[in-house]
Write a structure and sequence with these properties.
The protein is of the alpha/beta class. It has helices at about 40-50, 70-80, 95-105, 120-130, 135-150, 170-175, 195-200, 205-215, 280-285, 290-300, 325; strands spanning about 5-10, 60, 85-90, 110-115, 155-160, 180-185, 220, 230-235, 240-245, 255-260, 265, 275-280. The chain has one domain (about 5-325): TIM Barrel (Alpha-Beta Barrel), CATH 3.20.20. It has eleven helices and twelve strands. Helix 1 links the parallel strand 1 (about 5-10) and strand 2 (about 60). The structure holds S-adenosylmethionine and iron/sulfur cluster.
Length: about 325
């Protein structure tokens, strides 16, 4: 059983994309209002007074789209400067990254994951739910800016949707041959858009691996912060190829993370809605931080029993929150 020392912090539930696998089609999502979001000071208090003393050392900022969060660079600088922060990373769709990459790096961020589901602008826009001018060039520019700023490792996340972008697996994996980039293929999960999942299903990492292996061969590989990914390397490549296989392989026994939503709910398992606790209300009502820490410690102790296998989609069969709302 892994020690839980990793917290994913959602900074905002809003997003400037509407990816078809992340959000339900044609349904209005209600977003949190500004005062409902944890403030930067509240996040720092929770990290220093609650999570730090409980052994959390690694943090990932996510959303929604974290680059939409006002005050992001300051928050990164404050979190990076904490003596207990051993690792700080961020996941973004990259759309606003070209202008922010250098500032984020200067603030102390070193690791970044950028979602890039396709190299084809039309397919990319289809998946990102974009109907206007293509957003692909700006995301590509964001990736280049992150590369130029020095982010290492720079990871590219690809959610593979059957019949939409699965034909690009080789081309995306091929990016790692002459770039120090780390492409990670993620199995599509039934969270966010049930209709799309029902129509399309998901493709196993194993079958993708076999295709890449058949084309170039695949050696074992490694990359900093691999988490649940199985990492490989095309022979002679500079970067790596990773597979996150939460549908085909249960990695609950290796799970070392908790998730804090933008409105302060702490969730020990991505797919378990009942086992979460509200940290914002007690924090705002002035509860002793030691008491708050005790509650989080109790949830940590219960975490091994709360896992993906017992996922509780509720009586409607749907999860109450999308990945963008939970903080994927
Ligand atoms: N907006 C940022 C982004 O897209 O990178 C960060 C938040 S997003 C919720 C985090 C990750 O969750 C992204 O890599 C996204 O592709 C992934 N994701 C969203 N919905 C998913 C689903 N139904 N199945 C698998 N991965 C999903
Ligand atoms: Fe937004 Fe990320 Fe969800 Fe896409 S995957 S809609 S970019 S939160």
């Amino acid at each position: 059983m892994s020690v839980t020392d990793y917290l994913r912090i959602s900074l905002i539930d809003r997003c400037n994309f509407r990816c078809v696998y992340c959000m339900p089609e044609g349904e209005e999502l209600s977003y949190l209002l500004g005062p409902e979001l944890l403030t930067n000071d509240e996040i720092l208090t929770l990290v220093t007074e609650v999570f730090g003393p409980l052994g959390f050392r690694r943090f990932r900022l996510t959303g929604g789209e974290p680059l939409l969060r006002p005050g992001l660079v300051d928050l990164v600088a404050n979190l990076a400067a904490l003596p207990t922060t051993e690792d700080l990373a961020l996941t973004t769709n990259g759309f606003l990254l070209a202008d922010l990459a250098a500032d984020l790096y200067a603030a102390g961020l070193r690791r970044i994951n950028i979602s890039l589901d396709s190299l084809n602008p039309d397919t990319f826009d289809l998946l990102a739910g974009n109907r206007g001018r293509s957003r692909w060039p700006q995301v590509w520019a964001g990736i280049q800016a992150a590369h130029a700023a020095g982010f290492d490792p720079l990871k590219l996340n690809v959610v593979v949707i059957p019949g939409i972008n699965d034909g690009e697996v080789e081309a995306l994996a091929g990016l790692t041959r002459d770039r120090n980039w780390h492409v990670r293929f993620i199995e599509f999960m039934p969270i966010g858009n049930d209709a799309l999942f029902g129509d399309r299903g998901w493709i196993s990492s194993e079958s993708l691996r076999d295709r890449i292996r058949g084309l170039w061969g695949l050696d074992d590989g490694s990359v900093l912060g691999a988490g649940p990914a199985d990492v490989f390397q095309i022979p002679g490549a500079i970067g790596t190829v990773g597979f996150i296989s939460q549908m085909s392989e249960c990695f609950c026994d290796r799970c070392n993370r908790m998730r804090l939503s933008a409105d302060g709910w702490l969730r020990p398992c991505l797919l378990n809605e009942s086992a979460q606790i509200d940290l914002r209300s007690p924090l705002r009502s002035g509860e002793r931080l030691g008491a708050l820490r005790d509650r989080v410690a109790a949830l940590l102790a219960a975490k091994p029993e709360i896992n993906f296998k017992q996922r509780d989609a509720g009586t409607t069969g749907r999860y109450g929150r999308t990945m963008s709302q939970i903080g994927g």
